[in-house]
Amino acid sequence: SGSAVYDKENTSGFGTQENPPIVAMYTCHGDTEQQCIAYSTDYVNFAKYLNPVIPNAEKIDFRDPKVIPNPKGGWSVVLAAGAVEFYASENLKEWRKTGEFGPEGNHSQGVWECPDLFPLTIDGEEKWILIVSMGRNHETRARTQYFIGQSYLNPLTKPEDGLFLAMVTFGRLPEQLAIHHATKGGGQLLICTAGEGWYQEE
User: Fold this and answer.
1) Which residue of 89, 129, 185, 193 has the fewest C-beta atoms within 10 A of its own C-beta?
2) Residue 137 in contact with residue 110, Cβ under 8 Å?
């Protein structure tokens, strides 16, 4: 899986100030999983860059990159690599690792998948929310859990709730909205804003 961003300031140089590109990062598969990018200036057709931009020679799990604009400048990526790994870039092409989180505090066994990171304002204070999906294992079905800062909270679903996996957010939206879409048959929708959440089965 992967994600895409609108490079409004053309930091990548793939477009122009008048015609900024969309840049997509995705997991490419070979002997190992690595992160690659492709770009588009007509927003329909994409060209692959000189990939991979985040190489991996050893790890079995290394996928699901989510690209977000960093409020301090540049870009950030969260991806699943057993734990969650964080990367930073100024131009979407050259990336450096800046840290990792987990899997300590994991609610139960399972491979971490499809991480996501986004801010929400709660009681006037901005919090960064880390979402991690977990694959099925011998103990339980798939689930999703979330973290605020370094504190483990609660899974969003219980085992009996069934499959709830691969949540991703749609862009930077007004009024501190974060909209998630997850797979379960026809899919599920979770909308979070200002510390509250609404769940809708599609």
Assistant:
1) 185
2) yes
| Model confidence pLDDT, tens digit, residues 71-103 | 888 999 999 998 899 999 999 999 999 988 877
Residue 202 vs residues 108, 184, 187: alpha-carbon distances, Å:
27, 9, 6
Full-model pTM: 0.76
CB-CB neighbours of 93 under 10 Å: 17
Rounded Cα distance between 3 and 7, Å, is: 13
The answer to whether 1 and 64 are in contact (CB under 8 A) is yes
Distance CA 71, CA 105 (A): 27
Give the pLDDT confidence of 102-119 residue by residue, as tens digits: 777 666 667 888 898 887
